[in-house]
Amino acid sequence: MENRLAKASDSAKTSEEPRGPGRRLHGAIAHRLGTDILSGKYAPGDVLSGEVAFSEELQVSRSAYREAIQVLTAKGLVASRPKAGTRVLPRDRWNLLDPEVLGWAFAGEPDIEFVRNLFELRAIVEPAAARLAAGRRDKADLKAMKEALAAMRRHTLTTEGGRAADRDFHNAILHATRNEALMALSASIGAAVNWTTQFKQRTRALPRNPIPDHARVYDAIAAGDGDAAAQAMNQLVELALDDTRSAMDA
Fold this sequence. Notes:
Elements: H1 2-12, H2 21-39, H3 51-58, H4 62-74, E1 78-81, E2 85-88, H5 99-107, H6 112-136, H7 139-155, H8 160-176, H9 180-183, H10 186-200, H11 211-222, H12 226-249
Antiparallel strand pairs: 1-2
Helix pairs in contact: 1-2, 2-4, 2-5, 5-10, 6-8, 6-11, 6-12, 7-8, 7-11, 8-10, 10-12, 11-12
Protein backbone atom coordinates (compact mmCIF):
# COMPACT_ATOMS: atom_id res chain seq x y z
CA MET A 1 0.00 0.00 0.00
CA GLU A 2 2.80 2.40 0.87
CA ASN A 3 4.39 1.98 -2.55
CA ARG A 4 1.06 2.55 -4.23
CA LEU A 5 0.48 5.68 -2.17
CA ALA A 6 3.97 6.97 -2.88
CA LYS A 7 3.63 6.46 -6.62
CA ALA A 8 0.22 8.11 -6.70
CA SER A 9 1.48 11.05 -4.70
CA ASP A 10 3.77 12.48 -7.41
CA SER A 11 1.01 14.44 -9.07
CA ALA A 12 -0.62 15.40 -5.77
CA LYS A 13 2.52 17.01 -4.34
CA THR A 14 2.63 19.64 -7.10
CA SER A 15 -0.61 21.29 -6.02
CA GLU A 16 -2.60 21.92 -2.89
CA GLU A 17 -5.77 21.17 -4.91
CA PRO A 18 -4.96 17.82 -6.55
CA ARG A 19 -6.81 16.75 -9.65
CA GLY A 20 -7.31 13.29 -11.13
CA PRO A 21 -4.57 11.17 -9.52
CA GLY A 22 -4.80 13.36 -6.43
CA ARG A 23 -8.38 12.33 -5.92
CA ARG A 24 -7.40 8.69 -6.30
CA LEU A 25 -4.60 9.26 -3.82
CA HIS A 26 -6.79 10.61 -1.06
CA GLY A 27 -9.11 7.64 -1.65
CA ALA A 28 -6.17 5.28 -1.16
CA ILE A 29 -5.19 7.06 2.04
CA ALA A 30 -8.79 6.91 3.31
CA HIS A 31 -8.86 3.19 2.48
CA ARG A 32 -5.66 2.55 4.42
CA LEU A 33 -6.77 4.51 7.48
CA GLY A 34 -10.33 3.18 7.32
CA THR A 35 -9.08 -0.40 7.12
CA ASP A 36 -6.73 0.22 10.06
CA ILE A 37 -9.61 1.60 12.14
CA LEU A 38 -12.05 -1.19 11.25
CA SER A 39 -9.39 -3.84 11.92
CA GLY A 40 -8.68 -2.43 15.39
CA LYS A 41 -5.18 -1.15 14.66
CA TYR A 42 -6.54 2.21 15.79
CA ALA A 43 -9.03 1.91 18.65
CA PRO A 44 -11.73 4.40 19.62
CA GLY A 45 -10.08 7.28 21.42
CA ASP A 46 -6.73 6.87 19.64
CA VAL A 47 -5.25 9.94 17.97
CA LEU A 48 -4.06 9.49 14.39
CA SER A 49 -0.71 10.75 13.22
CA GLY A 50 -0.77 14.43 12.33
CA GLU A 51 -0.95 15.45 8.70
CA VAL A 52 2.68 16.59 8.66
CA ALA A 53 4.02 13.32 10.11
CA PHE A 54 1.78 11.15 7.95
CA SER A 55 2.55 13.13 4.79
CA GLU A 56 6.27 12.88 5.39
CA GLU A 57 6.10 9.18 6.24
CA LEU A 58 4.35 8.23 3.00
CA GLN A 59 5.60 11.14 0.90
CA VAL A 60 2.13 12.37 0.02
CA SER A 61 0.72 15.88 -0.03
CA ARG A 62 -0.85 17.32 3.08
CA SER A 63 -3.92 18.23 1.07
CA ALA A 64 -4.44 14.58 0.10
CA TYR A 65 -4.22 13.57 3.76
CA ARG A 66 -6.71 16.28 4.78
CA GLU A 67 -9.16 15.15 2.10
CA ALA A 68 -8.84 11.57 3.31
CA ILE A 69 -9.62 12.69 6.87
CA GLN A 70 -12.69 14.52 5.55
CA VAL A 71 -13.88 11.23 4.04
CA LEU A 72 -13.43 9.42 7.36
CA THR A 73 -15.15 12.27 9.21
CA ALA A 74 -18.16 12.11 6.91
CA LYS A 75 -18.48 8.40 7.68
CA GLY A 76 -18.39 8.99 11.44
CA LEU A 77 -15.05 7.27 12.03
CA VAL A 78 -13.03 10.25 13.26
CA ALA A 79 -13.36 13.82 14.48
CA SER A 80 -10.72 16.53 14.14
CA ARG A 81 -10.23 19.44 16.50
CA PRO A 82 -7.61 22.18 16.45
CA LYS A 83 -4.61 21.30 18.65
CA ALA A 84 -6.33 18.07 19.77
CA GLY A 85 -5.69 16.26 16.49
CA THR A 86 -7.79 13.64 14.75
CA ARG A 87 -9.31 11.14 17.16
CA VAL A 88 -11.07 7.86 16.39
CA LEU A 89 -14.70 8.08 17.49
CA PRO A 90 -16.61 5.41 19.45
CA ARG A 91 -17.80 2.53 17.31
CA ASP A 92 -21.47 3.46 17.78
CA ARG A 93 -20.76 6.66 15.85
CA TRP A 94 -19.43 4.81 12.79
CA ASN A 95 -21.63 4.57 9.73
CA LEU A 96 -21.20 0.82 9.50
CA LEU A 97 -23.77 0.48 6.72
CA ASP A 98 -21.85 2.78 4.40
CA PRO A 99 -20.81 0.55 1.47
CA GLU A 100 -17.21 1.81 1.63
CA VAL A 101 -17.01 1.20 5.38
CA LEU A 102 -18.31 -2.32 4.82
CA GLY A 103 -15.51 -2.82 2.30
CA TRP A 104 -12.94 -1.66 4.84
CA ALA A 105 -14.37 -4.07 7.42
CA PHE A 106 -13.91 -7.00 5.05
CA ALA A 107 -10.49 -5.90 3.79
CA GLY A 108 -8.99 -7.70 6.77
CA GLU A 109 -10.44 -10.40 8.99
CA PRO A 110 -13.96 -9.22 9.87
CA ASP A 111 -15.23 -9.49 13.40
CA ILE A 112 -17.60 -12.46 13.68
CA GLU A 113 -20.02 -10.45 15.80
CA PHE A 114 -20.20 -7.75 13.14
CA VAL A 115 -20.80 -10.38 10.45
CA ARG A 116 -23.58 -11.84 12.58
CA ASN A 117 -25.08 -8.36 12.99
CA LEU A 118 -25.15 -7.89 9.22
CA PHE A 119 -27.01 -11.15 8.75
CA GLU A 120 -29.46 -10.28 11.51
CA LEU A 121 -30.18 -7.03 9.68
CA ARG A 122 -30.70 -8.91 6.45
CA ALA A 123 -32.94 -11.45 8.20
CA ILE A 124 -35.13 -8.62 9.47
CA VAL A 125 -35.26 -6.56 6.27
CA GLU A 126 -35.09 -8.90 3.30
CA PRO A 127 -37.87 -11.42 4.08
CA ALA A 128 -40.25 -8.52 4.76
CA ALA A 129 -39.11 -6.86 1.54
CA ALA A 130 -39.70 -10.07 -0.42
CA ARG A 131 -43.21 -10.30 1.04
CA LEU A 132 -44.01 -6.74 -0.05
CA ALA A 133 -42.40 -7.27 -3.44
CA ALA A 134 -44.64 -10.28 -4.08
CA GLY A 135 -47.69 -8.06 -3.75
CA ARG A 136 -46.38 -4.93 -5.46
CA ARG A 137 -44.00 -6.05 -8.22
CA ASP A 138 -44.73 -5.28 -11.83
CA LYS A 139 -43.47 -6.73 -15.10
CA ALA A 140 -40.39 -4.51 -15.10
CA ASP A 141 -39.43 -5.69 -11.60
CA LEU A 142 -39.78 -9.35 -12.56
CA LYS A 143 -37.78 -8.74 -15.72
CA ALA A 144 -34.95 -7.17 -13.67
CA MET A 145 -34.92 -10.09 -11.22
CA LYS A 146 -35.03 -12.66 -14.00
CA GLU A 147 -32.16 -10.99 -15.90
CA ALA A 148 -30.10 -10.80 -12.71
CA LEU A 149 -30.68 -14.51 -12.08
CA ALA A 150 -29.64 -15.33 -15.63
CA ALA A 151 -26.45 -13.30 -15.23
CA MET A 152 -25.69 -15.04 -11.92
CA ARG A 153 -25.99 -18.42 -13.64
CA ARG A 154 -23.94 -17.27 -16.62
CA HIS A 155 -21.06 -15.70 -14.68
CA THR A 156 -21.31 -17.63 -11.36
CA LEU A 157 -20.68 -15.97 -8.01
CA THR A 158 -16.94 -16.58 -8.28
CA THR A 159 -16.68 -13.57 -10.64
CA GLU A 160 -17.30 -9.88 -10.19
CA GLY A 161 -19.92 -10.05 -12.94
CA GLY A 162 -21.84 -12.72 -11.04
CA ARG A 163 -21.60 -10.83 -7.76
CA ALA A 164 -22.80 -7.65 -9.48
CA ALA A 165 -25.80 -9.61 -10.75
CA ASP A 166 -26.41 -10.85 -7.21
CA ARG A 167 -26.49 -7.24 -5.99
CA ASP A 168 -28.86 -6.38 -8.83
CA PHE A 169 -31.19 -9.19 -7.79
CA HIS A 170 -31.47 -8.01 -4.20
CA ASN A 171 -31.76 -4.39 -5.34
CA ALA A 172 -34.63 -5.29 -7.68
CA ILE A 173 -36.53 -6.87 -4.79
CA LEU A 174 -36.13 -3.78 -2.61
CA HIS A 175 -37.19 -1.58 -5.53
CA ALA A 176 -40.29 -3.74 -6.06
CA THR A 177 -41.50 -2.95 -2.53
CA ARG A 178 -42.26 0.64 -3.66
CA ASN A 179 -41.15 1.62 -0.15
CA GLU A 180 -38.66 4.50 -0.27
CA ALA A 181 -37.21 3.71 3.15
CA LEU A 182 -36.46 0.12 2.11
CA MET A 183 -35.16 1.22 -1.28
CA ALA A 184 -32.70 3.52 0.51
CA LEU A 185 -31.10 0.42 2.04
CA SER A 186 -30.27 -1.09 -1.35
CA ALA A 187 -26.64 0.11 -1.45
CA SER A 188 -25.98 -1.19 2.07
CA ILE A 189 -27.72 -4.52 1.54
CA GLY A 190 -25.98 -4.92 -1.80
CA ALA A 191 -22.58 -4.21 -0.26
CA ALA A 192 -23.23 -6.67 2.58
CA VAL A 193 -24.21 -9.35 0.06
CA ASN A 194 -21.16 -8.65 -2.09
CA TRP A 195 -18.54 -8.61 0.67
CA THR A 196 -19.83 -11.67 2.49
CA THR A 197 -19.92 -13.58 -0.81
CA GLN A 198 -16.34 -12.59 -1.57
CA PHE A 199 -15.29 -13.46 1.96
CA LYS A 200 -16.80 -16.94 1.78
CA GLN A 201 -14.54 -17.89 -1.11
CA ARG A 202 -11.28 -16.24 -0.09
CA THR A 203 -9.62 -19.51 0.87
CA ARG A 204 -11.76 -22.09 -0.88
CA ALA A 205 -14.62 -22.57 -3.31
CA LEU A 206 -18.15 -21.72 -2.23
CA PRO A 207 -19.39 -24.62 -0.08
CA ARG A 208 -22.75 -24.62 -1.85
CA ASN A 209 -24.33 -23.09 -4.93
CA PRO A 210 -26.71 -20.39 -3.62
CA ILE A 211 -28.29 -19.56 -6.99
CA PRO A 212 -31.16 -22.08 -6.58
CA ASP A 213 -32.02 -20.32 -3.28
CA HIS A 214 -32.38 -17.06 -5.23
CA ALA A 215 -34.50 -18.80 -7.86
CA ARG A 216 -36.96 -19.94 -5.19
CA VAL A 217 -37.32 -16.36 -3.98
CA TYR A 218 -37.95 -15.20 -7.55
CA ASP A 219 -40.53 -17.93 -8.21
CA ALA A 220 -42.50 -16.99 -5.08
CA ILE A 221 -42.43 -13.27 -5.93
CA ALA A 222 -43.45 -13.99 -9.54
CA ALA A 223 -46.34 -16.09 -8.22
CA GLY A 224 -47.45 -13.26 -5.95
CA ASP A 225 -47.12 -15.48 -2.87
CA GLY A 226 -45.93 -13.20 -0.07
CA ASP A 227 -45.65 -15.90 2.58
CA ALA A 228 -43.60 -18.19 0.32
CA ALA A 229 -41.39 -15.28 -0.76
CA ALA A 230 -40.64 -14.30 2.82
CA GLN A 231 -39.93 -17.91 3.78
CA ALA A 232 -37.64 -18.45 0.79
CA MET A 233 -35.72 -15.26 1.49
CA ASN A 234 -35.37 -16.10 5.17
CA GLN A 235 -33.92 -19.49 4.21
CA LEU A 236 -31.56 -17.84 1.71
CA VAL A 237 -30.17 -15.53 4.40
CA GLU A 238 -29.85 -18.33 6.98
CA LEU A 239 -27.99 -20.58 4.54
CA ALA A 240 -25.69 -17.68 3.57
CA LEU A 241 -24.86 -17.18 7.25
CA ASP A 242 -24.11 -20.89 7.64
CA ASP A 243 -21.77 -20.73 4.64
CA THR A 244 -20.04 -17.66 6.07
CA ARG A 245 -19.57 -19.30 9.47
CA SER A 246 -18.07 -22.29 7.72
CA ALA A 247 -15.65 -20.03 5.84
CA MET A 248 -14.60 -18.31 9.07
CA ASP A 249 -13.98 -21.65 10.78
CA ALA A 250 -11.93 -23.00 7.88
